[in-house]
Amino acid sequence: MSPAEPAPTGDGRPAEDEHGLPPGYLLRPMTVWDIPEVLAHEATLFPLDAWPAHFYEEELAQTGPASGRDAHGRPPTRDYRVVVRDVAAPGSADDDGPAPGEIVGYGGIMVVGDVADVQTVGTVAAAQGRGIGAAQLRWMAAEAAARGASSLMLEVRASNAAARRLYARHGFQELHVRRRYYPGGEDAVIMRKVL
């Protein structure tokens, strides 16, 4: 077993990773090489307000370990990661899921002072319901806390009931509504998790 491989559970199956990703999935830093695939997912997941490539390029220029420096020589304020289908889980007959190597989720945070913001988070339809979104929220909260944040904020479309339920299950509380925040005039619900 390699050091990156999760330890097996009592029944011999690999355990989830430290953030709760199911076996067969890997969380890794996002790179500029991931942008084209992420953009394709953006267009499907967020058709009214998908980010353009230059948004991701600018965000990735501000990433790095909390103790390091970003591309501009400043302490990094961003962290972006992707969830990749690594391999099929041992013993699974999961032929309808994403192909190995495919990005199935992505997200990013910004940490300034003691407040962190979820800049974006998404899970492709073929991987939803597998714990990918929950694992992304866990890494974001852990990384935000490691960088000194005491709270993690996000905005979500008022109509996105499934996401709002997921966020609530992971400790986010609704603070207020920002009227007509999204393109098309939809309201945003502002949520916060105390770290």
Automatic annotation (TrEMBL):
A Pfam entry, by short name: Acetyltransf_1
Annotated segments matching region Disordered: 1-22
GO molecular function: acyltransferase activity, transferring groups other than amino-acyl groups
Keywords: Acyltransferase, Transferase
Residues in N-acetyltransferase domain copies: 25-195
Protein name (record): Alanine acetyltransferase
